[in-house]
């Protein structure tokens, strides 16, 4: 394991190992993400995608290896982690307090762009699965982080929201934010700068992809 | 891991962490409809049933601080027991449910930059406020069935408040400790029933035995009964009850802190 950080990377994982008892989920995963890059991590069910993302996010300690992050981080878990008694607006205020934000402008803009402003006063317990996922994503984006880790972020989105989601990601990329999306299905490979397949606990850059995928490894 | 905020540095935060956490913790703990229903309906019904069951036969109740054996009205004594018991269930259940359901959410808040100590303080204060309100309500409803003098009623209120804080703290501890709802509910209901009913001499061979001193409701029951029937304020016993409360609370908050802390430190 080398400890010299890559100066161009905003997120870097080297030789990350993680086991759950005898089950070795990650066996030396490496990942490097530069500012403005959109990277897709693709793997089958049970391949360790969420374990990798939690390790990158720091919510799960790696057994071995190194994860380096420069700048702020936003993490959108696969299953929405929300408080069903609080309204959408109260979630915004709670997380604005967590991030010490000067206001709710960014949150309101995200709500508008994801098209659920009519639910701002509704408790999360009364929202549909798709709207919960929108709120889950909004909370991860609220502080406009340098690096975004998104675990299956468009699950439950209708087509229109799916397109809004990609508009948002494009906007983040243009502003130099690094985005890592973990998914078991890639519908449109050409949206990503790079795809990494999680196979056997390691990440392998996908070199052959459909259509006009551009690969910047 | 902390998600530092260089982009927002220098601008004043719009929402203070403590008032925001306190407000939303309170909201969260008062949204439990089942607990509200228990409070509004169960408390008076329980008083009614228990006092009807006990009748007005005289019972012998030992005050441990003085060694005195009081002869008291069984119905009234049972009202105190019933109030203590109802409070154990309602506060334990309400706090357990609220804490357990929001544990993952609290982790996310800490991950997003909430200071753990602020979250812990707000949660503790909110548990204290909600459980004290429950105790106040139970003591007010008691007046429908029995009018002790003011000092006596204040003693019962103090006993109720301490048991409410104790079982609120137990709810907090179980909320961060147990894996599923049923385990927690079972422990709260069985624990509360055993604890409070063993203190009452009605049909209970263990009553007035020294072993009862090791139960959480011992102090509040002694304080309430001492004040209501013997014009005595047993401060040491009230403090004993508060010690149970502080013990459960400290253990619960320690586990909460461990379970919401971030796994890795960042470079």
TrEMBL record, chain A:
Ranges where the ABC transporter domain occurs: 11-217
Entry keyword set: ATP-binding, Nucleotide-binding
A Pfam family assignment: ABC_tran
GO molecular function terms attached to this record: ATP binding
Organism of this sequence: Streptomyces lycii
Protein's name in the database: ABC transporter ATP-binding protein
PROSITE patterns according to UniProt: ABC_TRANSPORTER_2 (PS50893)
Cited CDD domains: ABC_DR_subfamily_A
Classification via InterPro entries: AAA+_ATPase, ABC_transporter-like_ATP-bd, P-loop_NTPase
UniProtKB/TrEMBL annotation, chain B:
Membrane topology per record: Multi-pass membrane protein
TM stretches of this protein: 35-55, 75-99, 120-146, 152-178, 185-202, 234-256
Domain ABC-2 type transporter transmembrane as annotated: residue spans: 17-227
InterPro entries given in the database record: ABC2_TM
Predominant place of localization: membrane
Localisation per UniProt entry: Membrane
Alphabetically ordered keywords of this record: Membrane, Transmembrane, Transmembrane helix
Keyword Transmembrane belongs to the record: yes
Protein name: ABC transporter permease
Organism: Streptomyces lycii
């Amino acid at each position: 394991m080398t400890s010299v950080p890559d100066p161009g990377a905003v997120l870097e994982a080297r030789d990350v190992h993680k086991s759950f008892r005898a089950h070795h989920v990650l066996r030396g995963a490496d990942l490097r993400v530069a500012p403005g890059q959109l990277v897709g991590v693709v793997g089958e069910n049970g391949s360790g995608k969420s374990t990798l993302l939690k390790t990158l996010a720091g919510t799960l300690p790696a057994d071995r290896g190194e994860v380096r992050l420069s700048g702020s981080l936003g993490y959108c878990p696969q299953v929405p982690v929300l408080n069903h008694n609080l309204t959408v607006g109260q979630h915004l205020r709670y997380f604005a307090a967590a991030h010490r934000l000067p206001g709710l402008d960014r949150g309101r803009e995200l709500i508008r762009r994801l098209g659920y402003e009519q639910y701002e006063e509704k408790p999360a317990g009364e929202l549909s699965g798709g709207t919960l996922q929108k709120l889950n994503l909004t909370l991860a984006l609220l502080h406009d982080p340098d690096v975004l880790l998104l675990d299956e972020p468009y699950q439950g989105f209708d087509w229109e929201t799916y397109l809004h989601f990609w508009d948002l990601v494009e906007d983040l990329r243009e502003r130099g934010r690094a985005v890592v999306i973990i998914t078991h299905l890639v519908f449109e490979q050409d949206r990503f700068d790079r795809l990494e397949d999680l196979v056997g606990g390691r990440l392998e850059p996908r070199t052959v992809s459909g259509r006009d995928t551009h690969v910047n490894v | 891991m902390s998600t530092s905020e260089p982009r927002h540095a220098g601008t004043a935060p719009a929402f203070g962490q403590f008032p925001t956490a306190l407000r939303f913790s309170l909201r969260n703990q008062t949204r439990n409809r089942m607990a509200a229903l228990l409070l509004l309906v169960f408390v008076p019904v329980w008083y009614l049933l228990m006092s009807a069951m006990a009748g007005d036969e005289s019972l012998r109740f030992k005050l441990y601080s003085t060694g005195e054996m009081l002869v008291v009205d069984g119905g009234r004594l049972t009202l105190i027991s019933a109030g203590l018991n109802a409070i154990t269930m309602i506060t334990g259940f309400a706090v357990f449910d609220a804490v357990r359901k929001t544990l993952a959410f609290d982790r996310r808040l800490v991950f997003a930059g909430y200071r753990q100590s602020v979250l812990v303080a707000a949660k503790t204060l909110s548990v204290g406020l909600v459980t004290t309100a429950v105790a106040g309500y139970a003591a007010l409803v008691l007046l429908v069935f029995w009018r002790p003098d003011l000092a006596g009623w204040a003693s019962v209120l103090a006993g109720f408040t301490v048991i409410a804080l104790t079982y609120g703290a137990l709810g907090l501890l179980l909320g961060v400790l147990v894996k599923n709802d049923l385990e927690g509910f079972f422990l709260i209901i069985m624990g509360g029933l055993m604890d409070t009913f063993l203190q009452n001499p009605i049909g209970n061979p263990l009553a007035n035995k020294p072993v009862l001193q090791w139960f959480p409701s011992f102090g509040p029951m002694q304080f309430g009964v001492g004040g209501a029937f013997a014009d005595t304020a047993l401060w040491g016993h009230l403090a004993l009850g508060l010690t149970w409360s502080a013990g459960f609370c400290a253990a619960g908050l320690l586990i909460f802190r461990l379970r919401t802390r971030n796994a890795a430190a960042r470079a």
